[in-house]
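Hi team, as promised in this morning's meeting, here are the two structures we talked about. I've kept the exact order from the run log so nobody has to guess. The first one is mostly here for context; it's the second one we should focus on when we meet again. Sequence first, then the predicted structure tokens.
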Amino acid sequence: MIKRFCEQRKIVMLLHFTRLENLPGILDEGLVCRKDLDARPQNQRPWFCDRWRRRWYHRASCLSISFPNSRMFFRYQAKAPSAKWVVLKIKPRVLWELDCAFCSKNAWSNEMRRLGVSDIKRLKTYESFVRLFGDGSSRYPLNQQAEVLVFNRIEFPDYIEWVYFRTHEERVHWRSANSRFSEVPTSVEPKFFAYRH
């Protein structure tokens, strides 16, 4: 049913932003949940946007639907203006093939933070997914901070299909320095790095 809904709404991508230095590890291993990354030695962990996560969603990776969570992304970019970022395009079949929970708000919002492990089941339903969008025909959730929590590893190229860079220079430099990833499709898409009102 989720697949049919996505076809009707023309939902063709999920998105995940991350620091550029995390990209090689993601392409090698996929998006790995925070719990598993925290178990690694300090020098083998990627750069994290948030310092810690609540117990019920530290086993998940966070994705946005159709457009990055620009409010959060813009804030992280402003806090580290010299950092470089990428946005990963992820196939929408994650929504019906993997173990997902659908949050109508940012998973770190007060409402979501009050949820316990037992509440997760009701966030994994078709009804919970549809509520993200409301009536109409938009492919964008009503709340731009709505999130999909994915409780599986999300690997390239099975699910991760594209990497977007902010500038042509950043893309060219990264590709020249990472020739072993020459098969990875990349392009420049500045709109994903800007604030969406």
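And here is the second protein, the one for discussion:
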Amino acid sequence: MIAALFVEKGGAYYGIPDVDPWDEERDARLYPGPFPVVAHPPCARWSRLAGMCEAKYGLKRGADGGCFASALASVRRWGGVIEHPADTRAWDAFDLPVPPSDGGWVRGIEGGWACCVEQGSYGHPAPKRTWLYAYGVREFPSLRWGPSGATGTCTSSVPERRTRDGGRIPAAANRATPIPFRDVLLDIARSVAAAKEAA
């Protein structure tokens, strides 16, 4: 079993037999274990635009109600992976290893591993550069490194964006995790489960 934390209700992690989704209503900060996790903690207070939101609306940078800290604690306790936008300020706040933009895993002081990958390589209409932090993983699945070639523009704080050819990316597509990328994240968490069973 894999716990999918901080996911959208009815989204990509629902309806999978070995996945237990925790949406906002369930409050993933209360996840008690013991299964490995895939965590998508909210990113708005950690993004590059968080300073602008703080200045304009008074929404404090990093004030996410403890969601990222909870996701990190779950990953370090039960194993698994966190997904967050590239250049997230959460990495600095929690002293996580900053990955190279062209791909590859780098090890952190606490034993976890980080990498940068574009969700555009997995079907997202925008490049959507993403940082991953994995913990307790022995074997990483093969990832598609480098630029994806996706042409859309995606910013979490903007509800709808245009692609370079004038098409629109609806808000739901901006936020959505492509199914192939979801499957990669689940494979990372499943490798933790397999390692635990083998031990």
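Starting points for discussion:
The beta strands are 2-5, 19-22, 37-39, 80-85, 106-107, 113-118, 129-135, 161-162, 168-169.
Residues 142 and 184 are 9 Å apart (CA to CA).
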